[in-house]
């Protein structure tokens, strides 16, 4: 499977979004035997907010007041959208977003594709191209889509546009997520945080659903 940066799905017969420049093949490019699985039957309905996977997550946690508090929405296919407003707190250069913050926003959005597949997966590799600077106060409209799956490996790509879905592209990303079992979190996480997470019935139920419905 090549042309991995092509947004998926593009309705057949429509012109679709403009093709970005073709990137060289890298470990985040889906190989030829990658498949595009069906959207999971219990995936969030198109247009609905996916919700935070963990209330203290730096990317999406509503209780993480210094975090990005991103709100990601499910798309029609294996795709999601998110919006993020760059705050003065996120500066790298004067009046400009820090590149690492933009990558975090991309990571969070790409990671949310897990919900469409009902798979718990962590970022193994994340590549990004910074195409244009993003001023403070800008709204970054992010779209991400699955480009292929091989076994535990989930390939995906995304782009962030300034001002809205038709705005100029500021960042592109390609990533490889690796499916993990819940033990990944319970084995490696700080014990007090794991205990608190396991004591949260909603989180536990949500997380377990992934494991029994891979
Ligand atoms: C009870 C509480 C639960 C709380 C959690 C609740 C819900 C969670 C559920 C879902 C989350 C939902 C949304 C998430 C949204 C956003 C979150 C942001 C995501 C992140 O921010 S997450 C943090 C950063 N992330 C890490 O902290 C990972 C650290 N890392 C590891 O934990 C291991 O490294 C791991 C697991 C990645 C792999 O380890 P492993 O032992 O399981 O597997 P292995 O190494 O065999 O790799 C298998 C195949 O992937 C290939 N492969 C692996 N890594 C590669 C690389 N980098 N480049 C190219 N290929 C790679 C191999 O080459 C092999 O390929 P092949 O099968 O072909 O040989």
Features:
single chain, 214 residues, alpha+beta, Thiol Ester Dehydrase, Chain A, 20% helix, binds ligand 3IX, cell projection, cytoplasm, lipid metabolism, cell membrane, fatty acid metabolism
Word description of this protein:
With 214 residues, the protein is an alpha+beta fold. It has a domain at 71-204: Roll (Thiol Ester Dehydrase, Chain A), CATH 3.10.129. Helices cover 20% and strands 25% of the residues. The protein has 5 helices and 6 strands; from the N terminus they run E-E-H-H-E-E-E-E-H-H-H. The protein has helices at 99-111, 114-117, 183-188, 191-198, 201-212; strands spanning 71-74, 79-85, 121-130, 139-150, 153-162, 169-179. The protein has a 6-stranded antiparallel β-sheet with strand order 1-2-4-5-6-3, covered by helices on one side. The longest helix is centred in the middle third of the chain and has 13 residues, at 99-111. The protein starts with 70 loop residues before the first strand and ends with a helix. The model is unreliable at 1-16 (pLDDT under 50).
What is the N-to-C order of secondary-structure elements (H for helix, E for strand)? EEHHEEEEHHH
Tally of individual helices: 5
N- and C-termini, Cα separation: 23 Å
Mean pLDDT: 89
Q: What is the 3D form?
A: globular
Relevant CATH superfamily of the domain at 71-204: Hotdog Thioesterase
- In total, the number of strands is 6
Membrane topology: Peripheral membrane protein
Biased composition (Polar residues): 1-13
Family: Belongs to the THEM4/THEM5 thioesterase family.
Pfam families: 4HBT (PF03061)
């Amino acid at each position: 499977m090549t042309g991995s940066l092509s947004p998926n799905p593009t309705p057949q017969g429509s012109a679709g979004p403009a093709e970005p420049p073709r990137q060289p093949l890298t470990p985040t490019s889906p190989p030829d035997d990658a498949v595009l699985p069906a959207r999971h039957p219990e995936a969030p309905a198109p247009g609905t907010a996916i919700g935070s996977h963990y209330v203290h997550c730096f990317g999406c946690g509503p209780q993480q007041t210094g975090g990005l508090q991103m709100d990601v929405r499910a798309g029609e296919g294996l795709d999601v959208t998110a919006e993020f407003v760059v705050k003065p707190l996120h500066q790298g250069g004067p009046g400009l977003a820090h590149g690492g913050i933009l990558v975090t926003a991309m990571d969070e959005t790409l990671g949310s594709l897990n919900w469409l597949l009902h798979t718990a997966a962590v970022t193994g590799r994340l590549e990004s191209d910074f195409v244009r600077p993003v001023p403070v106060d800008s709204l970054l409209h992010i779209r991400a889509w699955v480009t292929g799956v091989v076994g535990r490996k989930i390939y995906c790509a995304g782009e962030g546009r300034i001002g809205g879905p038709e705005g100029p592209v500021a960042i592109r990303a390609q990533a490889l997520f690796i499916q993990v079992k819940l033990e990944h979190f319970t084995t490696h996480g700080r014990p007090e945080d794991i205990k608190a997470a396991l004591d949260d019935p909603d989180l536990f139920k949500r997380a377990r659903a992934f494991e029994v419905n891979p």
